[in-house]
Write a structure and sequence with these properties.
This protein is α/β, with parallel strands linked by helices and about 220 residues long. It has a single domain, classed as Alpha-Beta Horseshoe (Leucine-rich repeat, LRR (right-handed beta-alpha superhelix)), CATH 3.80.10.10. Helix content is about 25%, strand content about 20%. Helix 3 packs parallel to helix 4. It is globular.
C-alpha cells in the first residue's frame, strides 16, 4: 500500500507508474517526497541513498528501517513523531530543520554521522544539554538553534501553538511545521522581530496567526 505522496514522488522521478516496472524501484537512489502523511511504500525503494522529505506529517520514520543504503536524510517543515529508525541506519548526514521533533537522541546511535542540521527545530532541553554535546564529541558538525530561536520556539510551544521560530541570515522567521495548520508548510514564513513576537505572546498569543497573513 503506497502513500499517495510517496507514489507521486516515484512517478515524477521515474516517469511511469509504480506497477508498470516495479524492478526500477530498486535502481532509485535519490527521491524527494512532499506533503506525505505516511511513508508507506518507501521500503520498495530500498537502495535509496538520498531521501528528502518536505512539508510532511509523519507519526514516525519506521518505514526507513529497510533503507540500508541511505546516507543522507533531509527533513524540513515537517512533524515527525519519532526518529528511532534512524538509529538503525548507517547515515552520514541528517538534516531535520523547522520541525516539531523534540527527541533527537537516536542520532547518538549513528556512529558514522558527520553532519547534523537542526535549525528551527523544537528540540527538548535534553537535546541541547546532552545530545548535541555528545554528537560534537563524536566528531559530528552540528548546526542547531541559537539562544533566541530556542527561547522563542519554546514560548510558542508553551502557548500550545504549533509554530517555530528560526533564523535565516540576519532575520528571524516563523514557520508552521506539518500539515495541521497549512497544506504548504514550506512557504509563507514571515519575518518577525524577537521584541514583536515576545510582546504578541504576552498580550494575545492568538494574534500569532495574523503574523502569517502579512507575508502573503
Amino acid at each position: 500500500m503506497w502513500d499517495p505522496a510517496v507514489r507521486e514522488a516515484f512517478e515524477v522521478k521515474a516517469g511511469h507508474g509504480v506497477e508498470s516496472e516495479p524492478g526500477r524501484l530498486l535502481g532509485l537512489d535519490v527521491l524527494t517526497i512532499n506533503h506525505a502523511r505516511s511513508l508507506h511504500g518507501i521500503s520498495a525503494c530500498r537502495n535509496l541513498m538520498i531521501l528528502v522529505l518536505a512539508g510532511c506529517e509523519l507519526a514516525n520514520l519506521d518505514e526507513l528501517s529497510q533503507l540500508t543504503s541511505l546516507g543522507l536524510l533531509s527533513v524540513s517543515d515537517s512533524v515527525i513523531g519519532g526518529i528511532e529508525a534512524i538509529g538503525e541506519l548507517d547515515v552520514h548526514t541528517v538534516h531535520i530543520e523547522r520541525s516539531g521533533l523534540a527527541d533527537i537522541s537516536p542520532l547518538l546511535r549513528c556512529s558514522g554521522l558527520i553532519e547534523v542540521r537542526l535549525s528551527g527545530t523544537a528540540l527538548s532541553d535534553d537535546a541541547f544539554d546532552r545530545v548535541i554535546p555528545d554528537l560534537k564529541g563524536m566528531g559530528c558538525d552540528v548546526v542547531f538553534p541559537d539562544d533566541v530561536e530556542r527561547e522563542l520556539t519554546s514560548l510558542l510551544r508553551q502557548t500550545g501553538l504549533s509554530v517555530n521560530c528560526y533564523k535565516r541570515g540576519n532575520a528571524y522567521r516563523l514557520c508552521r511545521p506539518g500539515l495541521s495548520l497549512t497544506d504548504r508548510p514550506e512557504v509563507n514564513h514571515p519575518e518577525v522581530s524577537p521584541v514583536e513576537l515576545r510582546a504578541t505572546l504576552m498580550s494575545d498569543p492568538g494574534k500569532v496567526a495574523t503574523l502569517f497573513e502579512r507575508s502573503l
